[in-house]
Specification:
The protein is α/β, with parallel strands linked by helices and 481 residues long. It has three domains: 2-122, 3-Layer(aba) Sandwich (Rossmann fold), CATH 3.40.50; 233-352, Rossmann fold; 358-474, Alpha-Beta Plaits. Helices cover 31% and strands 24% of the residues. The protein contains 16 helices and 22 strands. It has helices spanning 10-20, 33-42, 55-60, 76-90, 102-105, 124-137, 173-176, 217-224, 241-250, 263-272, 286-291, 307-319, 332-339, 349-358, 425-434, 467-474; strands spanning 2-6, 25-30, 46-49, 68-71, 94-98, 120-122, 141-147, 152-158, 182-189, 192-194, 207-213, 233-237, 255-260, 277-280, 299-302, 325-328, 345-347, 366-372, 377-383, 407-414, 441-444, 456-461. The protein has a six-stranded parallel beta sheet, with helices on both faces. It has a six-stranded parallel beta sheet with strand order 14-13-12-15-16-17, with helices on both faces. It has a five-stranded antiparallel beta sheet with strand order 7-8-11-9-10. The protein is globular and about 65 Å long.
Length: 481
Amino acid sequence: MKIIILGAGQVGSSVAESLVSEANDITMVDTDPKRLVLLQDRFDLRTVVGNAAHPSVLVNAGAHDADMVLAVTESDETNLVACKLAATLFNTPTKIARIRSTEYLKHPEIFSDTNFCVDFAISPEQILTGYIEKLIEFPEALQVLDFASGKVSLVAVRALKGGALVGQQLQELRKHVPNVDTRVAAIFRKDRPIIPEGNTIIEAEDEVFFIAATEDIRTVMRELRGMDKPVKHVMIAGGGRIGKRLGQTLEKDYQVRIIEHNYQACERLAAELNDALVLNGDATDETLLESENIADMDMFCALTNDDENNVMSALLAKRMGAHKVISLINRRAYVDLVQSGGIDIAISPAQVTIGSLLAYVRHGDVAAVHSLRRGAAEALELVAHGDARSSNVVGRKIENINLPKGATIGAIVRGLPRSKGIVGENLIAEQEKLEPKSRVRVIIAHHDSIIEQEDHVILFVINRKMIREVEKLFQVNVGFL
């Protein structure tokens, strides 16, 4: 696939790294030649220096025969204009724009074919807010990811010494949760993937990924790890786009405090938030944290634009008694380093965001993609098409499907409506309108489960190099109509 990526920042660079490794023809466009030189030294891609909203720059980037334009510059306006030009001048099939301002997101008609011609608008701040909100809702988890319009969840937890399942075989799982069907999709032990089998034994400190119907997640988690006390008090360091959005999301259900060093920004936050307490100060100020009872905080979220400040404030909050700390880390090289050194969860914004983009680049009918373990693994939701003659998966038991070693089918969702052109909350609303809830079935995959036409199949892949092979497996034969 020939893809033009506009913007060589954190999101653009991460997407380029992922797509280049999958043998796509990538061209990067940015106004900063230094960024492009660094990318060209690392990856096999073309670069063009220039303004992404200029037709001549798009021509130089090869827009005449591009399959997709990913407009992910820092400017919403540049991204919108670039998509409009790609549609009007070059008839580019797929146009994706990064949109940061809620002013645009409030009016989806802006993105229609009669306006800016954006096929998919992605808001990194919105995605990150939802991601962190899930971690606050399930404080025991390392990751909580939704599939099939929220019907299925994939959750990563750290197995604690003394937990009910530590030291036992996976086949004993049903005895501990007899009324809930669940499956362990993967285990990582000291960063080494282990393919789960019935006789696999869970050890303390294992990172366990399990999949279950969303309504059953708490029950399963209670057995795997034990439940932490519910989060009530949340402190947020940084009142920028992400901090403000998270504060607005949480303030109705939690006691929220936001620390922001800029006084004018504090005034704006105080005017826009209803119940959250806004504090002017430095989140690395030990005196300030102590005076605001940091030891009583169930969750501390360091969400400023400065990696070093996030790391230092999170470590300080943890040392001073905060129960759990989350830190936003833009430099991917830092993520593994800090998460193993006192910070409970380090989040790479680019890795959280990238899944939304990859779903549009993958071959076959891919409904969702989530990047796992900082990009090392991936979970996909694929729709099975065809019949027993034209498909390699439809009409077959899972044990008879030729999956690559390291790929695991975790769940099957049957009865979901077609979701073309419908995204996020709109999809859930449309599903409930078109399909009675009783007709949507979540089937936890076992060896004798049979995949049917139009099933949504959720797979876990421990190595991203296997993804192309998995995608080929789900593609129908050429003769299928």
